[in-house]
């Protein structure tokens, strides 16, 4: 017997199967190092700022190079817009991994290493999105979708959720109810696998899931968010409440910790790439309920 999650009440303002939902722009997460030295015209604080800017520039360059080498989009103008978007990207620092002042005998130099999210320039990405060719193209940057089976739900109705990516990804599906209680629907205690194949539509609930999504009070504004990355997602604190997980984090913390992706850097002498860039995407749909 499947259980009904009585804490979940949902009515989703959804999207039709053939239409792309409103998505956050795909981004990338990488580690980068910056370096700068003091001089007669550069103070200690200015040196630290210059090193940080150097690290940000390197993060952008890593991501742009990744897009150029990994993306096999045949449409030249589309790929050009995509590369241009990452060239003008905004860099959000997720974590400062290390910052070190070297010995004064070495010239008072400063090194900083960061983990950063590189977010492409919005205007360029709008042109890419308008072409509508990346949603199902596995050679494009990771793009994920979440939608439901109908536009409006009333009390007692069942909701079906669908998720899909244009390429294989590690995913996490979070439901925020009207009381602002965050629940993790995928993976869950009965469906632990969080790796999803590209081009495949996954339904929730389905298979090993032991719950139904039944509309119940309290009613109000709610939200479904799907996070996806080409690398395993960062861990979040959660507790098992039967068929799903209750997340012990605020929505802001969920987003931040989910971006805590482990970046694999090859050891000296390895033939592997010296820097790994993890593609990342986030998709949300607004939710309301009514009796």
List keywords for this structure.
291 residues; alpha+beta; Dodecin subunit-like; 2 domains; 10-stranded antiparallel beta sheet; 3-stranded antiparallel beta sheet; 20% helix; 32% strand; globular; disordered N terminus
Account of the protein in words:
It contains four helices and 15 strands. Helix 1 (44-70) packs antiparallel against helix 2 and helix 2 (76-87) runs antiparallel to helix 3 (122-131). Strand 13 and strand 14 (245-247) form a beta hairpin. It is α+β, with helices and mostly antiparallel strands. It is globular. It is 20% helix and 32% strand. Mean pLDDT is 83; it is low at 1-23. It has two domains: 3-26 and 142-267 and 279-288, no CATH class; 27-131, FlgT, N-terminal domain (Dodecin subunit-like). The strands form three sheets. Strands 2, 3, 4, 7, 8, 9, 12, 13, 14 and 15 form a ten-stranded antiparallel β-sheet that branches. A three-stranded antiparallel β-sheet has the order 5-6-10, with no helix packed on it.
